Amino acid sequence: MDFEVRTERLILRRWRDTDREPFAQLNADAEVMRYFPAPLSHEQSDALAARADVMFDVHGYGLWALERLDTGEFIGFTGLAPMLEGVSGSGEVEVGWRLAQSAWGHGFATEAATAALRFGFETLGLAEVNSITAVVNIRSRSVM
Phi/psi of residue 50, each to 5°? Predict the structure, then answer.
């Protein structure tokens, strides 16, 4: 199965080694990580990227690295993941995203999430996809 998805402005693709450094910078950004327990260390960020990519092999879906078509710039991730135990919807599939601040306000999260949902419903045949965030996370709630 081809896991790459293209939109008008983005490529949702498997992870590359060259994504690790900009991903670590994104995950170290306090504003990007505002609604998470804490920013991630470089090692934690690398581990997350590795887990995100291996999901494709394990589940047939995962969190794609997100690349701008016009510049080739890595701007974060968007995709599908199993919902964690202990949260409402545990065991179901979630659509999620995390983008660098430079990519905020351009509609990239909505464009990529819409493509991820299309993949989930049309390619994978999922009946339902969830999404969760902090109540005060207005940006993510707008994408939802």
Answer: -65, -45
End-to-end CA distance of the chain: 27
Which CATH number does the domain housing residue 136 bear?
3.40.630.30
Cα–Cα separations (whole angstroms), residue 2 to 11, 12, 28, 85, 109: 13, 11, 31, 29, 21
**Which amino acid type is present at position 83?**
M
Number of residues in the chain: 144
Read off the pLDDT of residues 82-123 as tens digits, 9 standing for 90 and up.
987 777 766 789 999 999 999 999 999 999 999 999 999 999
Q: What value, to the nearest 5°, has the Cα angle with vertex 5 and ends 39 and 60?
A: 75
Residue 92: give the domain boundaries.
5-143
pLDDT given for residue 133 in this prediction: 66
- How far is it, in rounded angstroms, from Cα 19 to Cα 78? 14
Q: What is the pTM of this model?
A: 0.90
